[in-house]
Design a protein that fits this description.
By secondary structure, the chain is an alpha/beta fold. Helix content is 47%, strand content 19%. The chain starts with a helix and ends with a strand.
């Protein structure tokens, strides 16, 4: 059993209840280390209440859109996804919550043609699914205003998504590539006209262990037997403190390598 289908089950369960959906977002932020890294980097890049035009490129369940809508209430946010059900689901939730500065659209990132429109583009765990990645980076360049930044979070080629070779099956599913090396993603962003201003590895030695005990092993257990699903609360009772400490260490460690990368690039 993969973790994307599990997330979808929970996402569907809370789709029509705003309170439960906010709890769902909170759990995603708590349990997924990439969210710790992404939110930390966004806070470093922009002070709270910054006013800007934001593009959430591949918003999925919308948890990062929600984070930015709260942190930057004076900003306008356009969030897109290729899946129409995700777009409609997020549109309903944000409308219920009264966020009038957020819009949702169905869009293929290889076909967008915005020009000089956004101050900030956030792209989390999307590029590993797109074959024509350089085309997307060029589209990001066109979409950014001068001085605008793009933040890309994606697996590295050092075991991202628990895949080490091109023919390995990803635990995440549907990946177009195992991941990016520092040189690969830097060169591709540069060819698109963007200048890389920071590169960080995530899911280093601490984060990799936290991922296995916090996400991978519980999902494998749940997939093996419904009986194990009943045992998950007990499992987390004994392991959650350990997992959260490891996640904190990963975020506050200068990882020399890791299975995830966090890249910031700027349009000069």
């Amino acid at each position: 059993m993969k973790y994307d289908p599990i997330k979808k089950v929970f996402g569907n369960a809370v789709a029509d209840n705003s309170f439960l959906r906010k709890i769902f977002y909170g759990l995603l932020d708590l349990m997924f280390l990439r969210s710790w890294h992404v939110r930390k980097k966004v806070r470093e890049l922009y002070p709270k209440d910054s006013k800007m035009e934001i593009f959430d490129a591949g918003m999925g369940f919308g948890q990062y859109t929600y984070f930015m809508a709260k942190r930057f209430p004076e900003s306008n946010i356009l969030a897109v996804d290729v899946k129409d059900e995700q777009v409609e689901d997020c549109r309903k939730f944000f409308t219920k919550c009264g966020y009038k500065n957020v819009k949702f659209e169905i869009a293929d990132l290889t076909k967008i043609n915005y020009d000089n429109k956004f101050d900030f583009i956030l792209c989390v765990d999307v590029m590993e699914h797109i074959v024509e990645d350089e085309l997307v980076f060029k589209n990001f360049y066109s979409a950014l205003k001068k001085g605008g930044k793009v933040l890309v979070n994606t697996p590295s080629n050092l075991g991202g998504s628990d895949a080490h070779e091109d023919d390995d099956e990803s635990f995440i599913e549907e990946h177009a590539r195992v991941g990016y090396s520092k040189e690969d993603i830097t060169e591709k962003l540069n060819r698109a006209g963007l200048k890389v201003t920071s590169f960080d590895y995530s899911y280093g030695k601490f984060g990799t262990i936290s991922w296995r005990f916090g996400i991978k092993y519980p999902i494998l257990m749940a997939g093996a037997s419904k009986f194990f699903i009943l045992l998950l609360p007990i499992y987390y009772l004994f392991t959650l403190w350990f997992v959260l400490i490891l996640m904190w260490l990963d975020v506050h460690t200068d990882n020399k390598e890791g299975t995830g990368v966090l890249v910031v690039a700027e349009k000069n």
